[in-house]
Structure formats: structure tokens, C-alpha cells
Amino acid sequence: MFRDPDRPALLSVVFWVVFTATGLLRFAIPQAAEFTVIFVVVMAVVAVLWLLLPWSPDASPGRKRVAPFFLLATTCIGLVSGGTHAPLVLIAIANLAILNGMLVATSVVAAYITVLFVTMITVLDRTWTNAVGQASSMVLFGAFALGMASALLEVRRKKEDAQRLLERVRELAVAEERARMAGDMHDSIGHHLTVIKVGLENAERFREARPADAWAEVRQAKDMTAAALAEARRWVRALRPLALDGHVGSAALDRLARSFDGTGIRVSFEVDGPERRLDPDSELVLYRVLQEGLTNALRHADAEQVRARLAFGAERVVLVIGDDGKGAEETNGFGLSSLAERARAIGGSLRAGNVSGGGFEVRAEVPVTRS
Question: Do 258 and 244 form a contact (C-beta atoms < 8 A)?
């Protein structure tokens, strides 16, 4: 509560500067002891209300009730100390607008100025000229405070819109990746299951007339079943969460590399430089790049070995994945193109292509933190 994250830092600085200046100026002027006591009590009430004052429209109704009392308390400072309280009143008006909207705040300010004007005439016995002058000043102060609050609300609204847009982009990226993976699963596992089905149907048809051929079909179906099972396990690995069992950063990448043991290719993973904490988006891109590189080497490259190297720099992290396979005819497939777009979206880059002497290499570079 006392460290409200929604409280504008600049307004907090202004409040405490004005609050301190008001106290120093008041005690610099000798007055009767009873007025000093009243002043100290009012200042203490204002300080407590400031700490309790909410700054989010989503605050509870109970906390929102602090706002009008804060406006009243800052006004009372002016009655016992002079005009140095004006910036505090402006902050109170701005707070009303932030919590309740411009229409409610404007209505409250209009009522506040009206009551203040009547009080000066009937209770404080001010002249009409003096009352009109002070009321006019409050109108200007109120307009300024409402304008300041309106600008702050607009900044917040745009920040929320940008956050929603970012979340939408991430959702679309996830949906796009899932669509790609669904297509790949259909092509790979679906192909295996189709061949198994046809083979078993042939075995059933040959079981009496050509039993040797029937058993050959069964053996082929068995081999295809093992291949389909391995493919299914690979997709399970691809769908695992990034922070599996608490592993993040290079530990998650190393775990992913080791998960390809037993697939027929040797995978090595190295880390260069002191490890630094990565931005979540950068970490996810690196994870997906390694995943794509290992998967492509397994499925398309006929590689025997894959080497992955993660190098930490001061501001950038580089991941290089190379294999000793046959290379690729198409170096700009959907998976790598999608990852390249995601890398660019966070200020990084991705390049992929065949290397001289044979093999294929993927190089991803991402920032340590987002700017």
C-alpha cells in the first residue's frame, strides 16, 4: 500500500517537496501555540492520507473514499498556513480524475470551488472581489490539474493498448507455430500410420496364400510402428514447456540437446562466456532455434553429428547449430522463416544455409535484454 506501483513517481516527488517546504515556511513565521498544534495535526493527516491514497481506477471503493478526504485536508492546510498548499490541491484534483474519470472529477471540482466561494463569503467574511479572485484562481488550477490528469490517463491507456497488442502478437505467434507443428505431425506420423495400416491389411490378405509375404508385411509394420513412436516422442519433446523441471537458460538448452540422445545422431552442446540472465523472449527464441536445428538435422540432413554452441557477450547472445549432413536444397523453409521473424521482432537476427565442405548451419543472435 505504501509503495503503490500505480502512484506516479514525479507526483510523489512533488508532493514531498511541497509538503516539506510548507512545513518549513510555516514554522519560519511565529504564531500562537494553538495554531501550531492545529497545523501539525493537519500536516500529519495529509501525510497519512497520501500514503493511503490509491492511484488505480481498479482500487476498492473503500480506498477510493480517501481521495475526497485528501482534497479536504490539503485545503485545510491553506486555512492554517497560507497559499503554499496550492500544488497539493492540484495533486488531489488530479488523483480524483485518475480514480473516477474526467466527468466525475470535473463535477467534484466544480462543487469544490462553489463551496469554497460560499465559505469565503459567509464564513470567512471575505469581500466579493477577493472571493471571486480566489475562486477564479482555483478554476485555473483545477483546469490545469484536470489537463495533467487527462494526459496521464492517455499515457496509461496507450501503454495498456500496447501491452494488449503485444500479447496478441505473442498469441498469433504461438498459433502460427502450432499450425506449423500440426502440419508437420500430420505429414510425419500420419504417413507412418498410413503405411502401417496398408501393411497390416496386406498381411491379413496374404496370411493363407502367401504366409511369407504376410510376415514380411508384419515386420515392416513393426518397424514403421517403432519409427512412428520415435516421431511421437520427438513431438512430445518439442511441446515441452521451456522451464521444464526448473531448467532455464543454457540448462534448458543443454537438456533439450541431450533429449536427442538415442535418435541416431550425436549432439554436443557448449557454452562460451559467463552466463547472463536472458530476457524471456530471447530465451524462448533460442530454445526454438535449437529445437528446429536439431529436428531438421534428424529428419532431413542424414547427419551423424550436430554441434551447438551458445556464446554470451556483453549485450548479445549467439547460438550456432551446425551438422555434418548433406545440406539442404531449401534454406528458407517455413520453420526457419518464422523463427527469423521472431528474432527480428526482439531486435535479433537469424541466418541459415549450407556450409562449404558439407553440412548445414543455423546462426541466431538475440539481445540479452529488450530495450
Answer: no
CA 218 – CA 213 distance, rounded (Å): 9
pLDDT in tens, 38-64: 888 988 998 999 888 888 888 888 888
List strand residue ranges (DSSP E) for the chain, in order: 266-272, 305-312, 316-323, 349-354, 360-367
CA angle 70, 116, 10 (to 5 degrees): 35
Residues 361, 322: contact at Cβ < 8 Å?
yes
Reported as a single tens digit per residue, the pLDDT across 135-174 is 787 788 778 777 877 877 788 788 888 888 877 877 777 6
> Which of 143, 165, 187 is the endpoint of a domain?
165
Boundary residue ending a domain (119, 135, 165): 165
Task: Give the other-Cβ count within 10 Å of 293's Cβ.
Answer: 28
Q: What is the pTM of this model?
A: 0.43
List Cα–Cα distances, 30 to 22, 26, 36, in angstroms: 14, 8, 9
- What SS3 state is found at 352? strand
Q: Decide if 198 is inside a domain.
A: no
Asked, for residue 170, whether it belongs to a domain, the answer is no
Structural domain harbouring 118: 9-165
Lookup result for grid cell 541466418: 351
What are the backbone dihedrals phi and psi of residue 260, each rounded to the nearest 5 degrees, phi first?
A: -90, 5
Taking the C-alpha atoms of residue 95 and residue 54, their distance in angstroms, rounded to an integer, is: 8
- Chain centre to alpha carbon of residue 151: 23
- In total, how many domains does the chain have? 2
- Spell 346-355 as b/e; 16+ CB within 10 A means b: bbbebebeee
